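Appendix B.2, paired examples.
Example (i):
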Amino acid sequence: MEYQFTKEFALKADESDPLKEFRKEFVFPQFKGTNCVYFTGNSLGLQAKKARQYANEEFDDWGTFGVEGHVESRRPWLHYHEFFTDSLAKIVGAKKTEVVAMNGLTTNLHLMMASFYRPAGKRVKIVCEGKAFPSDQYALRSQLRFHGLDASNLIEIEPDPITELISEDQVLEVLDTHADEIALVMLGGVNYYTGQLFNLEAITRKGKEIGAMVGWDLAHAAGNVILKLHDWDVDFAAWCGYKYLNSGPGGVSGVFVHEKHHDKPEIPRFEGWWGHDKRTRFVMPEDFVPIPTAEAWQLSNAPVFAMVPLLASLELFDKAGMEALRAKSERLTAYLDFVLAEVKAATGVPVKSLTPTNPVQRGSQISVVVPKVGRKVFDYLSKNGVMADWREPDVIRIAPVPMYNNFEDIFRFGELMIQSLNEIK
């Protein structure tokens, strides 16, 4: 596609978009009577319109059935978490038995590490990326302390000081160098700051070769990029639901546990009754018998009202399909790259992107740096109907989400960037 920085081009591209109807299924914040340009789906996805309907239905069933709603409601609460299984399995490339919706992201990472970070002898170290999302670093360091180890056992792979990216070769070299010391490799699939997508398959393969457990934080990857967790032999993964999966603020997370770990009751874990064998769960025996699926890591029954927005969103993912969403994502980010170059040419301001230009190395995010006046540009955009995201010290994160963003959004953003720079510089 030959891009043009014109409204006519953007409208024509949107008209031919096979996913254009999905935009109508979401609720947009308003700006002067029209939809704002919403580019923060990498932080909090938009509300699917059916979320409100489904929530009202659950309230109605609660009022009608009381406790019997666990079995009598239109979506029986007893099995509520199971309504997400098929969709999540498709999104992360898993078998249905390998995924479950539960808890929040960091809670799930701790539950996974309770089982899969087992330091012993010389093999005690954890590998993560430098400039990982702080919650990951807090979780990893606290896991080390929990096992009586200090932070020197956390190997943080620091990004290049110029590009702020971490090359695949860097990661593989670290794994080679510390091969007999590493107990766990746990990186973010897509870095929250730069938008860099790591080669999960190659890194997982190398981690397994050196004898380490490999897990992934997929907060910025689930619902954003193509994942094949089962085929890649990932041990575990966890993701939040409120970014690309639109589960609402603080919404329900999900986990993946490879099937090779399922039928092993001896695996250490923090146990709860909802992970107990369904056949005898309500007999309430003294001894815990894990469900032979990823459900064994559940602690409590499903928080139905908290799960409703995710249910509404996943129906749309089922209809759109990850392959089609990913293809549109690549078109949108390519157009955004083009528009940023047009902004640079029109203003003379050396606007640059930290995010790799190769679509294989990024998802639906471009991290933009505007030298010296970045914060002023961000504030201008905010006051003129663009909801983007500021990250210290100097990054404006722009996330054109294929489920509901379009080419016109990007064109409008480019116009406002030029206006802001012409007024500020």
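Example (ii):
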Amino acid sequence: MPTTYEATLEYAQGQDQTDTLYPFRERFIFPQHEGADVRYFCGNSLGLQPKSVSYLMEKELRDWGKYGVEGHFRAAYPWFSYHHFFTDRLAKVVGAEKDEVVAMNTLTVNLHMLMLSFYRPHNKRYKIIMEAGAFPSDQYAVETQVRMHGYDPEDAIIEITPQEGAHLIEDIDIINAIKEAGDSVALVMIGGVNYYTGQFFDLENITKAAHSVGAYAGFDLAHAAGNVQLQLHSWNVDFACWCSYKYLNSGPGGVGGAFVHERHGNNPDLFRLAGWWGNDEKTRFKMQKGFVPQKGAASWQMSNAPVFNMVAHNASLDIFEKAGLPALREKSIQLTGYMEFLLRQITHLPFEIITPSEPSRRGCQLSMLFHERGKEVFEALTQSGIVADWREPNVIRIAPVPLYNTYEDCYKFYEVLTLIS
């Protein structure tokens, strides 16, 4: 592990030669630019396609053709139980017990379903605490849930903002706001890693603060799952949900995921929307009235598993299993640290890094806030075969993903910036 960085191509290539995770990039398909692989820094928006997806998809298509409806039980990976094949690997990604996670639906659908269970306002306990500047779909979901229960969002939603002149929200400000609102709080719902700044919130202590006032704690982990190490079970988080198409490389619109702590998932009296696929598997085909929730998070399922949608998820989670999250996180810290070091050598362009410098407060994203010329710089990067992400009004987001990005990628990004006059 390097203790110092150098802004040279030789240094970057030397680090890649000793990187034990370097071969994993060969498992992914890179878009092309002028006959060469692009330098892809957009895994925080859409991860690259694992090469194994096409083989696994073809396998399911063959079984569909061969078995028709009997594929639910006779396919090589029977569709009836397809989501079970990777539950243990999914649980490791978010630090959960196997029965606490399930792949289903998409992110915002899961958020709404879980809020129907965990946002149960009554009397004076009706407020939701969330971060200001949350991803719009989180804002929309919270607003509509509040309105559904007859409350005014202006009154029922408490948004925590950065301190004056700052870009980041301090964890202590969230915790203090929870304590101040006290028993008026029904739910704390935070985005685990903020999509805009890349800030990783202290989910463990936010959860403790929520529980201390009798509220539930739930998180949108769209930018956290597969990016940072999570321990949802031991942190005592009540619920969480995430998408799989960013760091989890499971394709556009890929199947979402949900976590429900076992103390809730194994409580059949907790309200949840009932669906056929969430019913006890042992009695599902008896076709009887009366919903009997199966054990754990799987009881929040509504409909058949979207098998073709899950193929890429299965493929990607296999790669995560082989690489190992601790090793990926260690490389993420080093690779993102190197990119930050390089960016701080650039003094002729008007930007600042608004992502926290402390590795414990960020994943593998860096957000460059431009005071001017941001779109011009972004277009120059694109023309040079670098895929980054532009976010209005003035931020370029880059994600040095440890599964497929390299030190040389980071250096080439820096090199292009040095050439912009």
